[in-house]
Amino acid sequence: MRRYNLHDLGISECRWTGNGSLKTNTGETVFYSGRDDDQHPEGIAVILRKGV
């Protein structure tokens, strides 16, 4: 993201379950949402840089 000067990035398929957010060690925030059962398809995530 930094290399291409992107401030937000959408990930069309995320195989994480549940939903929530986390901070990376470089300051980006990842918001994700997936299924609440033990199945892993149909998830999505968005990564935002600090300051957006």
Order of helices and strands: EEEE
Structural class: mainly beta
In which range does the helix fraction lie?
under 10%
Q: Whole-Å distance between the termini?
A: 13 Å
Mean pLDDT: 87
* Model regions low in confidence, pLDDT < 50 over at least 5 residues: none
Rg over alpha carbons: 12 Å
Strand percentage lies at 35-45%
Query: What is the count of distinct domains?
Result: 1
Number of strands: 4
Question: Counting H and I runs of at least 4 residues, what is the number of helices?
Answer: 0
Q: Report on the biggest sheet.
A: 4 strands, antiparallel
Strand order of the largest sheet: 1-4-3-2
What would you note in describing this structure?
The structure is a single chain. The chain is mainly beta. The chain has one domain (8-48). The chain has strands at 8-14, 19-23, 29-33, 43-48. It has a four-stranded antiparallel β-sheet, with no helix packed on it.
Kindly summarize this structure in a few lines.
The chain has strands at residues 8-14, 19-23, 29-33, 43-48.
Compile the SSE list and pairings.
Elements: E1 8-14, E2 19-23, E3 29-33, E4 43-48
Feature tags:
mainly beta, elongated, 52 residues, 4-stranded antiparallel β-sheet
